[in-house]
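Hi there,

I know you've been waiting on this one. I reran it after we fixed the sequence typo, so this is the corrected version. Both the input and the resulting structure follow.
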Amino acid sequence: MVNESTRLSAQDWARAALRAIADGGLAAVAVEPLARTLGVTKGSFYAHYSNRNELVTAALAEWVRGHGDEGLAEFAAIADPAQRLRDLLTVVVQSVQPLAPSVHLSLLSDRNDPRVRDAVRQVDQARLELLTRTYRELGLPPDRAESRARVAYAAILGLMHLAQTDPGAPHSAVLTDEATAIFLPS
């Protein structure tokens, strides 16, 4: 809860909208419940956005920033492709928590919305490009690098999906070791 005298930024609202999306998809983004969650009045919302659609658009842009090219920049900057892949797999697997809400998975249920389709496409493309580049740098030919990247990314998405329904999944350190053994070419 935020003190009423605390002024929220547009980004605060966008991040709150992302938490709502993770919990319930686009339908969960509603001004009054978000204001209650943030501990402010609706006036705080209208200081930044004209309507709910602007907030949804801003939230999706925030998600793309954090999970697309900009969010992957730290990994892209790792010169050693094996280390890059290890670090990427470690962070991804450790971020997958049993029963934890997922913006990405929630957005898939709203994939017919053009804004959602575009945001998911941008994030997927950035992730696939980084994985493909990494596999090429590890010595795979271009077509195999792209295929391996797709399979690795599908496995990551699958882990996210399983975490939604499988509270008894192995500890993330075990999964990280397995993912590294499977997806890091020897």
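Quick highlight: The chain is about 70% helix and 0% strand.

Best,
R. S.
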